[in-house]
Amino acid sequence: MAAVERAYELRADADPCGEHGALLAAVLSGLREQPKRISPVWFYDERGSSLFDEICELPEYYVTRTELAIMREHLPEIAAVLGSELCVIEPGSGTSAKTRMLLGALERPAAYVPVDIACEHLSAAAERLRREHPHLTVHPICADFTRPFAVPEGSPYDDRLIYFPGSTIGNFDRRESVQLLSHLRRIARGGAMLIGVDMAKDPRVLVAAYDDAAGVTAAFNLNALEHLNQRLGTDFDPSSFHHRAVWNAAESRIEMHLVSRCRQLVRVGNAFVSFAEGEPLVSEYSHKYTPQAFAAQARAAGWRVEQAWTDSRGWFSVQLLLPAHASITWGAVRDQCAPPRRETEPLDTA
Ligand code: AVI
C-alpha cells in the first residue's frame, strides 16, 4: 500500500461491482505495485489508435514494415505450407489489414473469425471482408481474446489456424505469454498458429523505435493518461509526466515509462496515488526474443516451431507453430492425406 496514500482514500466507489468499478479497481491495483503499472489497453482510445497507425509509418518503427515485407516475400510459400480450406482465427484483429494479405494468398479459405474487444470496429472490418470475399464465412466474435471465447463447431470451422501477427505476444510478460499461447492452442484444437515475433537486436535501434524523433510515441504514451481521465474520471495531468523508453537487458524487453516530473498526488476513484519526482509509471512491456528463447516459450505452452521466416537482418520473424504432441499431419501435407484425421479415430463399423 506504500504506493498509494491510504490516508486519502475516501468512501467506497459508488459502483464497485459495475464495469466502471471493476476498471477502477484494476487500475488502482496496478498503481499499488512497485513499480507502478497500467495496462497497455489504455493506449487505445480513438486518438491512441490513430497515433498507433502513425507509429507504424515512422522511419524508426521497423516492426510493421519488416513484418509486411516478410509476408510479401514469403506469402506464396507460407500459403503452400498452410494448405487449403482453413478457418483463420485472428485474436485482436483490429482492422484486419495483414489478414487481407493472408486470406488473399490462401487456397480457398473456409472461414475467418476475427476476435476483438472493439465491437464496432470489428463488425465494420467483418463487413468489409465479406464484401471482398463473398464465398468466405466471416464470423466476428466480440471478446477479450485472452479469455475463453467460443468458435462455432463443425464445418467450416474444423481446420483451424490462429493468426497472431504484429508481435502483440511481446506485450505480455513471460508468464502471461505462456498462458496466452496455451489458451490459443486449445482454441486451435489440433490446428496451427502463424505468429509475428519481434527479435532481440541492438538496443539503440529498439530505443529509437520506441522514442521516435517526431515524438509520436511520446504522445501515444501520454494519451493513456488522457484516456484514463476521460473514461474513469482520474485527474492525471499529462503535462506533469514525460515519456521514456528503456531497454531492460535482463528481461530482454523495451519498457515504456511515464515519468513523473514532480512530486504529485493523482486522484483515482476515491483514492489518491502519490508520485515522487522522477518516479516511473510502467505503461508497456515489449519483449524481444532470440529464436531459442521464443522456441522455449512456445514449447512451454505445448507448441513446437515448425518453420520461421525472417528478413535479411533477422529483425522480425513470422513463425509457424504446431501442437508439440500432434499425431496428425498438417497443412499441405494434410491436404495430400485424405481423409486427414481418420487414422486417429475409431473405425466406423456402421
Ligand atoms: C502493439 N504492440 C505490438 C506495439 C509494440 O511494438 O509493442 C505497441 C507499441 N508501443 C509503442 N510503439 C508501438
**Structural class label:** alpha/beta
- Supply the number of helical segments: 10
Q: Helical residue percent?
A: 25-40%
Q: Categorize the overall geometry.
A: globular
Low-confidence stretches: 1-14, 337-350
Tell me the fraction of residues in β-strands, as a range. Answer: 15-25%
Provide the succession of SSEs: EHEHHEHEHEEEHEHHEEEEEHEEH
Give me the Rg, rounded: 22 Å
Secondary structure: number of strands: 15
Distance between the termini: 66 Å
Mean pLDDT: 89
Bound molecules: N,N-dimethyl-L-histidine
Q: What kind of sheet is the major sheet?
A: 8 strands, mixed
Care to describe what's here?
There is one protein chain. Strands 3, 4, 5, 6, 7, 8, 14 and 15 form an eight-stranded mixed β-sheet that branches. The protein has a four-stranded mixed β-sheet with strand order 2-13-10-9. A three-stranded antiparallel β-sheet has the order 1-12-11, covered by helices on one side. With 350 residues, it is an alpha/beta fold. The chain contains ten helices and 15 strands. The longest helix is centred in the N-terminal third of the chain and has 21 residues, at 62-82. N,N-dimethyl-L-histidine (AVI) is lined by residues 55, 63, 166-168, 170-171, 210, 217, 284, 286.
